[in-house]
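Bug #77: duplicate submission created two jobs. Keeping one. Sequence:
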Amino acid sequence: MKKVLWMIAMVLIANVSVGQDMDYAKRLFEEGRDKLAELGVTGSGHMQQFNKIKKAADMGYAEAIAYFGCELTKTGYTMIQRDVVKGVRYLDEALLLQSTQAMICMAYQHYDEGRIFECIELLDQAFMLGDYNAATDLGYLFKTGKLTNHPHAEPKYAKYGLNNDLASSLYYLQEASKNGASEAEILLSHWYFVGVPGHITRNTSKAKALMVRAMQEKDVIAHPWTTRQAEHIADDVYGVGWEEKLGM
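Kept job's structure:
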């Protein structure tokens, strides 16, 4: 009996220790990630922050593993050498841990390499797990045939109807907007500003309300390698001078 109680106690102590380790890894990751966002791509002191994220990843923290994998596949930092093969290994590990960030990053990888249906499947999986940045990506993809903030739209995707599935696009953007994804709010704002025949009646008041809400949130948009904030997305969608156009 004493031996059984001792074994139970050891298991409980081990579980507490693992939980404390993950709390520490989470703090390390968040410190590194947030500091990198402050530094931008041209600041100094990046490696110290990347080392924090790498340590958190080595400790098994899923979001750190995903972040590091994303940076290796699509790095915007000159001090990090791009290594897609190594990055995908990290992402595969994070996918096993159900990281939605890894799902989104791997979806981009599929998109780049022409696997559009695998891309959609992963984004939808991330959305079903509650990641509304993935819903924004899906909304943009079904409207334009390209991913949010992605520099190139592949014309071959148009043959699948991905550049004109307005019903699917609206569904995903509205779901993302309802849950505070500011980029989705900006995209929907533009749709209400211009109107979409058969889908959205032009409504400048609603367009303005969505934009105001997005500007109040001002989250860092979408993905770990993207540092543009809501104002920059608004410039892209509406063009420079959107404040005046909306009467803001």
